[in-house]
Amino acid sequence: MDSLRIMGKLQEWKGKLKEKYANLTDDDLKYEEGKDEQFWGRIAQKTGKTKDDIEKWVRGILGKD
What we know:
65 residues, mainly alpha, 63% helix
């Protein structure tokens, strides 16, 4: 799943990320167009996971590839 498709589902999986990683805030999950790397960097820093790990987890919770 590419980043664009994940961004389209952001509202659907934002809650799931916050459930799994309680230290994520709404500000951490705020997506601004053109700032993809900053978005992924914030999530990676707070979760200790890579962008690829996070995308794989999101695919799993959404049941989609």
